[in-house]
Specification:
Rossmann fold, seven-stranded parallel β-sheet, about 230 residues, three-stranded antiparallel β-sheet
Length: about 230
């Protein structure tokens, strides 16, 4: 595991934000972002000076990794959170934002529409994908034991998560694995056993999405494997 260990979560997120900007400056044009509370301050950094102006110099397709099946104005919406942080000061004219259209009120139709828009944007693969980890080892909406883990021929898919009794929509495991680089953000002691499991060969979804492909792990000391 390519671990980068930081003293605090703020240090971790600042380093990840700088890395994202550097990758864009180096040629990354398709960047996928995960939701959740951990990366939210990083998106605020990226949407504010000076990083906003640095990123505005380049054409970027920003892509939502996965979505809870709620309206975009719901507090739980990943796309809604990104609009309030990354795009709080407006979206740059050369940037595009590909999200899951939950307003269709049909998870399968939402996934198909996402795939259609992906193709319209002429995206062949992701240059960079930022991922998180759940306490059960899930990443994106790839939850343990769900059939979406076996989907190999789709860009995106709907998935029902029994543990949460809800539908989600997500990019698929092969899309994540095909990205040029994966950055995984993990903080807090609850993530430590998951990271130890990934290191030791456990078959968590985050491991399935990252094993054997270039992945940088940005973690704080509480999450660091023993």
């Amino acid at each position: 595991m390519n671990l980068r260990i930081f003293d605090t979560t703020n240090d971790l997120l600042a380093a990840a934000a700088r890395t994202l900007v550097q990758r864009v400056q180096g040629g990354a044009r398709t960047v996928a972002l995960s939701g959740g509370s951990t990366p939210k301050p990083m998106y605020t950094m990226l949407g504010s000076s000076p990083m906003r102006e640095q990123l505005a110099e380049f054409p970027i397709s920003w892509i939502v990794v996965d979505e809870r099946y709620v309206p975009i104005d719901d507090p739980e919406s990943n796309a809604g959170m990104m609009q309030k942080t990354l795009f709080a000061n407006g979206i740059s004219p050369t940037h595009r934002f590909l999200r899951f259209r939950t307003e269709l009120n049909d998870p399968a139709a939402t996934a198909r529409t996402f795939e259609d828009e992906w193709r319209t944007l002429n995206i062949s693969q992701l240059d960079l994908v930022c991922l998180g980890i759940g306490d059960d080892g899930h990443t994106a909406s790839l939850f343990p034991g769900t059939p979406v883990l076996d989907v190999e021929n789709r860009i995106a898919s709907e998935v029902f998560v029994p543990r949460l009794d809800t539908w989600r929509v997500t990019i698929t495991k092969p899309v994540i694995r095909a990205a040029t680089l994966r950055i995984v953000l993990a903080n807090g002691a609850k993530k430590k056993p998951i990271l130890e499991g990934v290191r030791d060969g456990a078959d968590y979804p985050i491991a399935q999405a990252t094993n054997g492909v270039d992945t940088w792990w940005f973690i704080d000391r509480d999450a660091a494997p023993a």
